[in-house]
C-alpha cells in the first residue's frame, strides 16, 4: 500500500514583504524624564503633601525635585549635542579625572568644599504632584502626536520599490529599490543607547537626490531586515568616531 508524500514543512519565519522606516524627532529621547516625572507624581500624591508641619520642604519632595531636574538636564544635553564614540570616551575620562582630583583635594585640604556643600544644602527645590502630573500629561500628548504624525509620513522598502507615504490623503511616491544603497550612521552614542537610533541614508538607483532619515529607531534591526529583504543590497556601515 502506497503512502501519500509528506507535506513540506512550513517555514518557521514568514517571509517579510516590506520594511517600514520612520524618522522621529529628538523629543523621543526624553522618555527617561517622562518616566521620572510620572513616578514622582505618584510618590508626591501618595505622600500627601510636600511640606512638613514647620513649612520646610520634606526630604522626599526635595529628592524627587533633584532627581527630576538632573534627569531633565541630562536629557536636554543628549538632544542638544552629538556625542560620537571618541567624544564620549573623552568626556568620560575627563569626568573621572575631575572626580579623582576633587577627592585628592578634599583629602589634602579639609573643608575646602564647605562653602559649595553649604550652598547646595541650602537649595531645596520642590514641586507638588500636580506639577509632575501636568508635565507627564503634556509629554504624553506630545508622544501621541508624534505617533500620529508617523502614521502619515514614513518610508516603506519593498523588494522591487521604495515607497514614501506622506500627507493626510496618503500621497504616495514610488522609487526603484533594486541596487539601492544604504549608509548607516551612529552619530550619537547616547541616542543609540536610549532608542537604538541612528541615521539611514538611502541612495536609490538612477536618482540624483539622497534620502536622509534621522533618528530611525532600532536601526540595527532595520538594517538586517532590509538586507534580508533585498538580498543583494549594498550596505555601508559608517560609525562616526570623531
Task: Please characterize this protein's 3D structure.
It is built from seven helices and eight strands. The chain has helices spanning 31-47, 59-80, 85-108, 114-122, 129-150, 189-195, 219-230, and strands spanning 19-21, 153-157, 161-166, 171-176, 181-186, 198-203, 211-216, 234-239. It has a four-stranded antiparallel beta sheet with strand order 1-2-3-4. The longest helix is centred in the middle third of the chain and has 24 residues, at 85-108. The chain is elongated and about 70 Å long.
What is the compact description of this entry?
By secondary structure, the chain is α+β, with helices and mostly antiparallel strands.
- Overall mean pLDDT stands at 80
The Rg value, from CA coordinates, equals 26 Å
Portion in beta strands = 15-25%
Low-confidence stretches: 1-14, 232-236
Assign an overall shape.
elongated
SSE pattern: EHHHHHEEEEHEEHE
Output the strand order for the largest sheet: 1-2-3-4
Termini separation (Å)?
Answer: 73 Å
SS element count, helices: 7
**Main pleated-sheet profile:** 4 strands, antiparallel
By helix and strand content, what is the structural category?
Answer: alpha+beta
Q: What is the oligomeric state here? A: single chain
The helical percent reads: 40-55%
Counted beta strands: 8
Amino acid at each position: 500500500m502506497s503512502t501519500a508524500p509528506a507535506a513540506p514543512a512550513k517555514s518557521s519565519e514568514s517571509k517579510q514583504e516590506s520594511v517600514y522606516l520612520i524618522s522621529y524627532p529628538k523629543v523621543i529621547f526624553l522618555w527617561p524624564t517622562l518616566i521620572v516625572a510620572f513616578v514622582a507624581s505618584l510618590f508626591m500624591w501618595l505622600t500627601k503633601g510636600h511640606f512638613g508641619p514647620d513649612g520646610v520642604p520634606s526630604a522626599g519632595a526635595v529628592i524627587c525635585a533633584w532627581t527630576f531636574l538632573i534627569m531633565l538636564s541630562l536629557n536636554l544635553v543628549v538632544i542638544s549635542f552629538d556625542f560620537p564614540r571618541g567624544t564620549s570616551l573623552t568626556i568620560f575620562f575627563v569626568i573621572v579625572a575631575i572626580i579623582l582630583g576633587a577627592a585628592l583635594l578634599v583629602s589634602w585640604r579639609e573643608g575646602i568644599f564647605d562653602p559649595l556643600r553649604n550652598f547646595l544644602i541650602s537649595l531645596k527645590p520642590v514641586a507638588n504632584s500636580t506639577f509632575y502630573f501636568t508635565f507627564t500629561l503634556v509629554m504624553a500628548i506630545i508622544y501621541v502626536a508624534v505617533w500620529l504624525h508617523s502614521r502619515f509620513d514614513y518610508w516603506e522598502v519593498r523588494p522591487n520599490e521604495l515607497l514614501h507615504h506622506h500627507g493626510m490623503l496618503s500621497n504616495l511616491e514610488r522609487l526603484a529599490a533594486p541596487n539601492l544603497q544604504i549608509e548607516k550612521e551612529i552619530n550619537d552614542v547616547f541616542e543609540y543607547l536610549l532608542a537604538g537610533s541612528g541615521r539611514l541614508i538611502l541612495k536609490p538607483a538612477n536618482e540624483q537626490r539622497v534620502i536622509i532619515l534621522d533618528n530611525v529607531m532600532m536601526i540595527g534591526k532595520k538594517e538586517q531586515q532590509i538586507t534580508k529583504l533585498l538580498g543583494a543590497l549594498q550596505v555601508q556601515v559608517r560609525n562616526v568616531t570623531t
